[in-house]
Design a protein that fits this description.
Structural class: mainly alpha
Order of helices and strands: EEHHHHHHHH
CATH superfamily of the largest domain: Tetracycline Repressor, domain 2
Shape: elongated
Strand order of the largest sheet: 1-2
CATH class of the largest domain: Mainly Alpha
Radius of gyration: 19 Å
Number of strands: 2
Distance between the termini: 61 Å
Number of helices: 8
């Protein structure tokens, strides 16, 4: 039996598209990852309607019964795809912020840019993470924890900025929600093709938008009702 190698990227201006590669036999614990990678490939190539446990098994090169060792149905497979996406997004945000050290403004900008970059590089996974099919997340505890961790990181960045006197006072969660709404909205517009800056211009464009967000949150900005 062969496994699809998880893609480093689903495509977009920052990276080229790749399909799953098949190599080697499954090792213990690899089946779940292989099915998630297969699901991501199907989602990117054909959309959610084409994804079934049977289709994922076929692409992964395993029996039709094999997916049920890990996933009860399509929804639980999608939940795993989304959970993995949130964990990868959180790690990307941490990695982007780390080089800025004590430069809180640089960290804030980097977190926003990395969010948009993740969305553009992983459009299919991004859609699953925030799609209607997983609107009710109460039954997917690991997914809920992973998504909460991502938002907590943004809230912590807001709190650090407030403590340093760089960001305006207010409920950190409310400011984080406003920040997330703007950055997520930009990401969704790019993923859906509503905005299409050139490949070479995309980083600079995102930087400017995140800079406008910071100016709105800056401590000396007037507070309006």
């Amino acid at each position: 039996m062969a496994k699809p190698t998880p893609r480093k990227s689903e495509g977009g201006p920052w990276a080229g598209r790749q399909g799953p590669e098949k190599r080697g036999p499954y090792h213990h614990g690899d089946l779940r990852r292989g099915l998630i990678a297969a699901a991501l490939h199907i989602l990117g190539a054909e959309g959610s309607a084409a994804l079934t446990l049977r289709a994922a098994a076929r692409l992964a090169g395993v029996s039709q019964a094999a997916p049920y060792r890990h996933f009860a149905d399509k929804e639980t497979l999608l939940a795993a795809v989304a959970e993995e996406g949130f964990r990868a997004l959180t790690e990307a945000m941490r990695a982007a912020a780390a080089p800025h050290g004590g430069d809180l403004i640089g960290r804030f900008r980097a977190v926003g840019q990395s969010y948009v970059r993740f969305a553009v590089e992983h459009p299919a996974q991004f859609r699953v993470m925030f799609g209607r099919e997983l609107a009710q997340r109460e039954s997917h505890l690991d997914l809920g924890a992973a998504s909460a961790e991502t938002f907590t990181m943004l809230t912590a960045a807001i709190q650090q900025g407030q403590q340093a006197g760089l960001l305006r006072p207010g409920e950190p969660r409310d400011l984080a929600m406003a920040s997330w709404s703007m950055v997520h909205g930009l990401s969704a517009l790019l993923v859906d093709g509503r905005l299409a800056p050139g490949t070479q211009e995309l980083d600079a464009f995102v930087f400017r938008v995140v800079q406008y967000l910071f100016l709105g949150l800056r401590n000396d900005a007037p507070v309006r009702p």
